[in-house]
Give the backbone structure.
Amino acid sequence: MSVIESVRQHADEMIAIRRDLHSHPETAFEEHRTIDLIARRLSEWSWKVKSGTGATGVVGTLSAGHGRRSIMIRADIDALPMQEDVGLAWASRNRGRMHACGHDGHTAILLAAARHLAETKEFSGTVHVVFQPAEEIVAGAKRMVDEGLFKEFPADHVYGLHNIPGMAAGSFGFREGPFWAAFDTYEIDVEGFGSHASQPHRSKDPIVAGASMVMALQSIVSRNVDPVEPAVVTVGVFQAGTAANVIAQRAQLRISTRAFTEEMRAFLRQRIFEIADLQARTFGADASVLHSSGVAPVINDAATTRKVEQVARNLFGDERILQNVPLMSYSDDFSVFSQNCPGCYVVVGNGDSKPLHNPGYDFNDEILVDAASMWVSLVESNLMA
């Protein structure tokens, strides 16, 4: 029996787990029910389990044979703080919470692989399965690593996976080197001087200063960045004022940036600070900038990527393998793992679904078995008995 056929024997159970997770979404560092389910299942399948790593993460460890090599596979487990609009039987029961990014599917995929590996143990070495919290706020991976993840669970390679709507269902995409973007957020507080709307000459209007700032920030990519190098600067929030006849005292902008190298990431940061200061002073206001969060780009190790790509090619044939897929401007704190261990982040097509982070999105259960089979085959081929 092939790996795919063997994993498919438990497909109904794994889909039920996925839908149960979807019905009970939990956001960053609140994934208590989620990790209880994961830990219970892993324990039933004779994995050694540690819960609470990174606050609400789970690590399962399984060894077989006498091999001394080890690999780590990571799945993210958190949901988003948004209202679902799917209308399916397994829709979210937690108002204002939704698995709109497929982390329920990623978790079920890794659990399916974990079950098969425990039943067959056709490998020699050690496997660590990591169920990571708080990916959506790019905080969970850092917390796990800071708490000693790789010291307690050393690995030769680390792998992760994400589904991609609009990509053919069950196709697998690979790219060596930079793949997903670095992500940074900034808050700019503009302090002006308020007055009556009929006397603008007595004010230092933070809204005018902020509006000029918004326009100037758009020049970073269009006039400071080489056209062949991708970068994004987005002003997502501009808040100021309480009434039409009041010139506000202060305004706030919140900005998101994406870049694929640390050099570009640093350049965007520098220009944001410069523009905020100069634009504010032009209008007699003051600006303070806070870099509130960030995560490095996902950079795939070439040799590690070739290993998992060959595994997928052997399983599914050339027609389902996408080599050198385009850069993706998504971000993911899997980059923290791959900064500490040679890693590869794989993408799998979710088919013709709604986009990620859309209230109508749902994970495609038809890809669960194939993705789990890839993880199983990766373990068996890397840790050959």
Notes: The chain is about 35% helix and 25% strand. The CA atoms of residues 236 and 340 lie 32 Å apart. The chain has a mean pLDDT of 97.
